[in-house]
From TrEMBL:
Transmembrane helix among keywords: no
Cofactors required: [3Fe-4S] cluster
Gene3D superfamilies per UniProt: 3.30.70.20
Keyword match Electron transport: yes
Classification via InterPro entries: Fe-S_cluster_ET
Protein name in UniProt: Ferredoxin
Keywords: 3Fe-4S, Electron transport, Iron, Iron-sulfur, Metal-binding, Transport
One Pfam family matching this protein: Fer4_15
Length: 98
């Protein structure tokens, strides 16, 4: 897991430093600073996620290699790509409503 701290969003609540003091410190004015390069050990993941979830201004973000719009390629090259379109006939499968 890798995290990023956007210091421009930080309002200095200090909750992150309470939950994960090995990854966050507070500067002289009480604003958060990230300790290290943002790489989180598996054993510290719960504490860092707690800091991320409890941040009132959402200044901490989890970096992910995936993109939200990534769609896995079809399993078979002969498969019709139109079979995966979101249309009225399969709207329950995709979870959208009109």
């Amino acid at each position: 897991m890798k995290i990023h701290l956007d210091r421009t969003l930080c309002d200095g609540f200090g909750i992150c430093a309470q939950h994960a003091p090995g990854y966050f410190s507070l500067d002289d004015w009480g604003y958060a600073c990230l300790i290290g390069d943002g790489t989180v050990a598996a054993s510290d993941r719960d504490d860092v996620m707690r800091a991320l979830m409890d941040c009132p201004v959402h200044a901490i973000m989890e970096l992910d290699d995936r993109r939200p719009d990534d769609v896995p390629p079809p399993l078979n090259g002969d498969e019709d790509p139109a079979a995966h379109l979101k249309v009225e006939s399969n709207e329950a499968e995709w979870g959208f409503t009109r």
